[in-house]
Design a protein that fits this description.
The chain has 363 residues and is an alpha/beta fold. It has 13 helices and twelve strands.
């Protein structure tokens, strides 16, 4: 009797497992594509937590911002990851719903050991336009700044930095060393002692080979991001298409991502969940106004006190004038910067000629 019972029990167990597998297969597999920052900071951790909770499967494909957005619009993926909001210059992006999930920060990185530890907004403004090109202008050695950037002008991290500095995310910059995504960029920066680049805090805060610079004397870390003192804060978004055939399943995943399970993943990666950052949300416009005011005042010879973005951004600069965007102030100062830059380059060429020429390491 026993020999016959055991096979029956075995078949019953196998049948239950098969039924469970069939049920799991009935759930649609969601597809995610986007920038490396959002993939590593959010999507991969959320996908793993979603699967552990029994929610289903999310396939994550990291490449860059615009590829994810374009494929979500075309219906080739269900969710796009982006470190920037929709761009008005690309009207088709309005077809997607951009949902902010976390607060991250833009950080300027160099290779570990660089003697420069702080940079001002004005210096960043001039570096990215090619007006400031040497580390000794930042208090470092007399060597060229090797500026690294992402090839796509609509990459989320680069777009956000340009929007902070110039008032427009598609501003052209002088960065000859281009990479497809921040992963490749960070590897290159870690190999080059003269490198400078922007990336996301969540990408590099545990990277021992890279050094994050303070901005206006404020070091990026978990505390200065959470309390809003660090000025270059940005949301990370998941963008979804309401016309997606699997829209109901996508919304089920998004509810998970915004809920306690998703928030735990976000905190574990050094970021602030969007729902927790109500003060950051309220202060976002003021932070951006403060950045614009500080740039405008410094480029025109005035000053905006450094008492923290929310304290300094109010309505007036040190001259009592209304806050003005950085870009118009830059136009007014552009001629002066070009003249100073030409003089500096002439002096550099003369010094290099006297020292016997300039190689790549001495640039």
């Amino acid at each position: 009797m026993m020999p016959r019972i055991r096979p029956l029990l075995l078949y019953a167990v196998l049948g239950l497992l098969a039924a469970g597998s069939a049920g799991a297969r009935q759930l649609p597999v969601l597809r995610w594509r986007g920038d490396y920052t959002t993939a590593k900071s959010l999507a991969e951790g959320l996908a793993a937590a979603w699967a552990r909770s029994g929610g289903g499967r999310l396939d994550v494909d990291s490449f860059n911002t615009i590829s994810g957005i374009d494929q979500a619009i075309a219906g080739k993926v269900d969710i796009a990851g982006s470190a920037r909001p929709p761009f008005a210059g690309q009207p088709q992006e309005s077809r997607l719903v951009f949902t902010p999930l976390a607060w991250d920060a833009l950080v300027l990185v160099t290779r570990r050991g660089n003697p420069v530890h702080d940079v001002t907004l004005q210096q960043l403004y001039q570096i990215y336009l090619g007006y400031m090109t040497r580390w000794n202008q930042l208090g470092g050695p007399d060597r060229a700044i090797h500026l690294y950037s992402i090839a796509s002008p609509l990459d989320g991290v680069e777009f956000d930095l340009r929007r902070f500095l110039y008032g427009r995310g598609d501003q052209e910059i002088a960065a000859p060393r281009l990479y497809l995504n921040t992963q490749q960029l960070q590897v290159a920066v870690g190999l080059d002692p003269q490198a400078l680049a922007v990336t996301a805090y969540s990408n590099v805060y545990r990277n021992p080979g890279l050094q994050m610079l303070s901005v206006e004397g404020v070091r990026p870390d978990a505390r200065t991001i959470a309390d809003g003192r660090y000025p270059l804060l940005v949301p990370l978004y998941f963008a979804t298409n309401p016309r997606d055939p699997d829209a109901a399943e996508v919304q089920r995943f998004m509810r998970f991502a915004e809920g306690p399970g998703g928030q735990a993943v976000i905190r574990a990666r050094g970021m602030v969940p969007w729902a927790d950052g109500t003060a950051l949300q309220a202060g976002d416009a003021l932070r951006r106004q403060w950045v614009a005011a500080r740039l405008a005042a410094e480029l025109s010879g005035g000053r905006v006190a450094m008492n923290g973005p929310l304290a300094a951004a109010g309505a007036t600069d040190s001259q009592g004038a209304g806050i003005t965007p950085a870009a118009p102030a830059a136009q007014a100062a552009k001629m002066r910067m070009q003249q100073r830059d030409a003089q500096r380059k002439a002096a550099d060429r003369a010094a290099e000629a006297q020292s016997g020429g300039s190689g790549e390491g001495a640039e």
